[in-house]
Design brief:
This protein is α/β, with parallel strands linked by helices. The chain contains 8 helices and 7 strands; from the N terminus they run H-H-H-H-E-H-E-H-E-E-H-E-H-E-E. A 7-stranded mixed beta sheet has the order 3-2-1-4-5-7-6, with helices on both faces. The structure holds S-adenosylmethionine.
Length: 221
């Protein structure tokens, strides 16, 4: 079983490196229904502890990378986080400090937890669908940490978000690939998104076999 999964991870690596391999695998793999789920599902999942694993050591590795890149690219700058959940990344980023942080999440439960621990004069949370929420301000960095796949039309969604970036602003995006089918779905999202952006930095982080996280810092073209 483990060997079969290892082989699938190697196939996914091949798909990432060679577009014809990806095209072949995308053609023969069973398409996944879209990840988007109703707000009520997120409430149930946060209340049942489904997402508690996000506070673990493994997830802390990707949080550390995103927090460090944020500080190097826009030291002390303003941050918008889409799909901020309970504010785990906000907690990691505030150690280095920021001028202002706004976190948006569709789950009221997650936002209430984040607010209770982290809200202050520089730190604000909004409960709502980031696809429709009105954002008046502009930010130096927009972070989408394990959430882009929940938006229908991720390419168009990111293009709209460009309007919330300061000139010279940067997007930080992390997406996990949890199995071959999930990985192919995430590769398709990257293929949709990358033509509109220049890649400033990118890295893959792998935990034994799965997940494989891809983290990219992007500049709108
Ligand atoms: C997999 S969790 C990741 C949480 C956190 N960013 C992290 O990396 O630990 C995805 C998050 O996206 C949020 N989300 C999903 N769809 C959303 C939407 N349309 N608008 C805002 N947040 C959304 C969920 O409520 C959830 O908190």
């Amino acid at each position: 079983m483990v060997d079969r999964e290892r082989l699938k991870a190697v196939l996914l690596h091949g798909a990432r490196q060679f577009p014809p391999v990806e095209q072949l695998l995308q053609r023969i793999s069973k398409k996944r229904p879209h990840d988007r789920v109703d707000a009520s599902v997120w409430e149930d999942q946060y209340n049942s502890g489904h997402w508690d694993f996000l506070t673990g050591m493994t997830e802390a590795a990707r949080h550390a990378i995103v927090a460090e890149w944020r500080e190097r690219l826009k030291p002390g700058g303003s941050v918008l986080e889409i799909g901020c959940g309970t504010g785990l990344l906000c907690r990691a980023m505030r150690r280095a400090g920021y001028e202002r942080y706004v976190g948006v999440d569709i789950s009221q439960t997650a936002i209430v937890r984040a607010e209770a621990e982290l809200a202050d004069a520089q730190t604000r949370f909004i409960a709502g669908d980031a696809a429709t929420v009105a954002l008046e301000e502009r930010f130096d960095i927009i972070v989408i940490n394990e959430a882009l796949n929940y938006f229908v039309g991720p390419g168009a969604f990111l293009r709209r978000l460009h309007g919330s970036l300061q000139p010279g602003g940067v997007l930080l995006i992390s997406m996990a690939e949890c199995n071959l089918r999930d990985g192919l779905a995430k590769l398709a999202i990257w293929r949709e998104v990358l033509p509109d952006h220049a890649v400033i930095e990118e890295v893959s982080l792998q935990r034994e076999i799965w997940p494989i996280w891809t983290i990219r810092a992007l500049k709108p073209l």
